[in-house]
Amino acid sequence: MKITQIPALFSILLCTFSSCNDDKKTTSETISITDTLANTQAVVTSDTATRVYSANGVLLANDQVPDMIRTAFTTKYPNITRSQYYSYHAHADDDLEVDQSYYYVRFNNDGADYTSWFDSDGDWVKTSTKVPGNKNLPDAVNRYLNVNYPGFDIEEISKENDKDMNMYEIKLNKGDRKVKLKILPNGRLFKRKSN
Length: 195
Description:
The chain is α+β, with helices and mostly antiparallel strands. Helix content is about 20%, strand content about 45%. The chain has three domains: about 5-55, no CATH class; about 60-130, Nuclear Transport Factor 2, Chain: A; about 135-195, Nuclear Transport Factor 2, Chain: A (Roll). A hairpin with a 2-residue loop joins strand 3 (about 50-55) and strand 4. The two termini are about 20 Å apart.
């Protein structure tokens, strides 16, 4: 997680505690930062509850996972034995519709970490995994980057697949310029967002 995202995470936590402590009792609260499945999280413990917040979700306890979400995940990925379920909290950089409720599941398969998204009806939306460096991208994608974004540094690469297609989400930066691209494996630009 970038340092700039940590203040936003803590503001979410502050809002949560200010709205949760209506009984005016004094409670002891502890905040710690951890790294779980390659994403920084804040763990907040009070006298009444412990919640784990990632950058845009809340880790669900086993009894909090809706049956339709658990069934959808285990049907799609029957061989996964360890997973973490989250309820999704929208933010401005979302590619998903921010007015819908989503759930995502983090899991490891064959040594790679994955995130699989489901809508509130239990329908699978997409699955993504981090790609370690541009040497693992298709040649056509690297050619597109070299021609169109020379001198940019790659911040992060994810491979996504949904019901219709596979693509690579690539975050680039050059000084103050930031660009987020979605590129198809054949090197064709699908979507671009920049500041």
